[in-house]
């Protein structure tokens, strides 16, 4: 039950392609690969229609740099300093890691897709960023116990199954130092976006649904109670959560700390 791994650019031959292509073409290869996904480069945007391919790639790359820079300044920078080792979970092409690396000692950036890591190394490389490909969707097998001061994970948990989500939170708990904080994005379920393909529902999926699961990044909307249960089972409490600015469709950022679970009534909500 559930979705297959949401491994965008995960095909085994993508890192090989980078080795075959001469160095001077690798940046362009990375930008072209990233452009395949509407998650990063917006082919649909009016302002970038009718421009050359190269201009489009550079314009969208710059837009992503600026977008992730402001995300880091708003959501991550307040929690980190130059002494810290920070984990970027589900780093994708590394735009967040690149921005965060300015404000901490080291960023360990982990993704399940070897292809996207190959792109990140090409376009968002810094001496204090270590990119790692994780082979198991529910593990951080190359990250040591209590070795991380701060973890952030944007646009990842909302693409994974419940089992993987809960296990990953347990992994966050394992690798985080006792006083560490986690920032994690989820999409909250509402009457408008109630998930039809809920994992474990026991319903047989249609062929269309199975094709959709295989080839698109699916979004899992979860009720708050379920997210709280995952946190509780993993040893975290919610410090606060707030809807992401610029969105009004249920994307929330949760701040977590390890210790005892807080009651819903104790939690600060800002919308
Ligand atoms: C929508 S992208 C977000 C990338 C980045 N966090 C950002 O906001 O720019 C989701 C990323 O999570 C990665 N991912 C999905 N499931 C994962 C898992 N179980 N473990 C590690 N990475 C995962 C995907 O390969 C993809 O690169």
UniProtKB/TrEMBL annotation:
Gene3D superfamilies: Vaccinia Virus protein VP39. It holds the Pfam family Methyltransf_11. It comes from the Bacteria. Keywords: Transferase. Residues 87-184 form the Methyltransferase type domain. GO terms for molecular function: S-adenosylmethionine-dependent methyltransferase activity. CDD domains: AdoMet_MTases. This is Methyltransferase type 11 domain-containing protein. It comes from Chroococcidiopsis cubana SAG 39.79.
